[in-house]
Amino acid sequence: MYLLNRITFASICLLSVGQIANAAGNADAIFYGGDIVTMNQSQPTAEAVAIQDGKIIKVGSLAKLKAAQGKDTKLINLNGQTLMPGLVEPHVHIIGTAFSEEIFLNLSNFAMPHDTLDSLVTKLTAYSKNFKDGEWVNAFGVDPSRTDPFMSELTADVLDKVSTTKPIFVMNQSMHIAYVNHKALEMAGLTDSTPDPKGGRLVKDSKGRLTGVIYEVPAFELFLSKMPVPTQEVVEKAVAKVGQRLVSKGVTTSAEITVGGYLGVDKEYALFNTMTRNGKLPVRVRGYMYSSVYPTSNTSYKPGQGDDTFKLIGVKIVADGSNQGLTGAMTKPYDYPAGTSNTGNLNFTEQELYDLAKPRFDEGWQISVHSNGDKSIEQTLNVFSKLVKKPSDAKARLRIEHFSVPTEAQINKAAKLGVVPGFTIGHTDYWGEAFHNHLIGAERADRIDPSASLIKKGMHFAYHSDSPVSPIHPLKYASEGASRLWQVAPQKVLNPNQKVSINSALKAITIDAAYQLKMDDKIGSIQEGKYADFAIVNQNPMKTDAYKIRDIEVNETWVNGQQVFKKQ
Fold first, then answer.
1. CATH number of 2-80: 3.60.130.10, 3.40.50.300, 1.10.260.40, 2.30.40.10?
2. N or C: lower Cβ tally within 10 Å for the chain?
């Protein structure tokens, strides 16, 4: 009854003929008739929002917005839906997702039950029938920590069951490990005596034989360099599908966190520049150059290059691996397998990391460093402390990606340096049980994605997918941050002390994610002067159980005052 009365009142206020005739306003559209969650601390809710020329011009009561109504103003009745700021995804591999989930066979399984080696072989075998002998079979998304039996791997011997005549390359869900068959080893020209490439590893068994398991990009390149490059048309279609996936989840602004990582900087810059301008990629994109393909000697691009639809703002450096893949650099050994001395991998010495970051920092690039393990986090913070020499340096919003298992001392240090961490909050969900019970133990698992600790220090932080590492779904990230329930039964909360309020969790996908992208003056909240970027959802997340926020559906997405998605 309240909602009906509210909508009726809105209709009277906004649709009165006399008011329309006499109004002096010039809004293009006014949204009303539902909950409006602004994420603006000084004005948390509103009755209506008016937009003009792609920007928000008024937020407030229906009475206040009468002045913005003109004869051509569109009146958009939310009919009880909730309008909130467009969601912000600050860490996505857009092109990586296009390859992994659209061009390659996508084996990712984030539901229960887990896959088995047999089910993976069956899926790969069926897919491989589409290829001739000698043609590469590419797939993505296997994860030993989410495979039964636990930590089962696709070795060359296992992949030979799929084919011995077609080279097979399968990327691990973490994107730090891959698996190949013997035919792929042959076509890459690798033998048991081949040395590891710098920064990569070719895993060998106790007898010194290649197992088909390979670590990190330099090793991947030995195989990728032998594969045909997809056509521009194929790549653009795949990227467009990723764009549709983003807007279908309410995302209006996304990062491309590794510009150049797949096709080279020039090709990827041109692709994003074209696709965002012509609307084939309907989200606003902020790009981070991948340091491995954009060396410090390259000065072809400048910070801030581009326009509002696509702009380069940072440089991304990968300092270690993934904790679920046992390659994130840890101070103490992993718990799996029992008795292991493995502490993961640092990709650089501290000096090498500094030498990568310092020139780019001085040029004005925002520095983003992937650091999962506490050993890697310490190294990155040491480098950041050398970059931040005066108060203004702390305003650079240095980013640590994932920041998965920091110590309290590291959190304190990050706070003093003005670091803005980003959490792959799905670590608490998809991998929570594996971390806690098997991979790193209870003490370190309780430190994963410590959102509440950062709030106590007054820090900004963002939630992200790291797609294709986990699925694009910001409302689910908020649900994970506020509930911290792991997926595997029996479900348990991964350190209840790190749960955050729904408001704080939503900040991590809106205004604080915008802060991380240095765009909080333009997006992330519904405020006058900001872009008219909205997600219209079927339920108010502020009034929803934390765990069930993931079930909220996005009905519409608007970018710059234009509808770019409507649920069918």
1. 2.30.40.10
2. C
